[in-house]
Amino acid sequence: MDEIALPDIQEPDLTPLDPRYKRVLRIVGAIYAAVFLLAATIGEIALDGWEGVFWIPALILGALLVFGLPGRRYRSRGYRLGADELRVVKGVWFHSDITVPLGRVQHIDVGQGPIERANGLATLVLHTAGTDNASVSLEGLAHEDATAMRDEVREVMRAFMQ
Asked: What is the pTM of this model?
């Protein structure tokens, strides 16, 4: 019987994301967990006599969001920048493997949210022609790496335009 490949096993030809990205995923998970715990607290107060019916599932979900999923999400992501294409692999439950020919890139963005900026990370977004999957984002890059990749892709774009 064939074995099913788990998505959180990093392929050897892919470059892993910056390790600080795990911290960002944990912070985002903690924010969601805090919202769930606040909602659970309101539920516990509103329904007298139902102690723990909201808190226990919220605590389990919060622990999963902060300690369980970030590591798996980090390990399930990677990329490879070749001479003429960028391959982006991601997904724990819904796995995607996207290859973008650099000659089809129309413009490139490097963005940072407040949590990414505080951790020195950035997201590289490649925009291509078309409507479906016209943008491919690569989160979890060191800001320096994202800007260097942007400049490298820009050079490839210039070569294709000539």
From this structure: 0.85
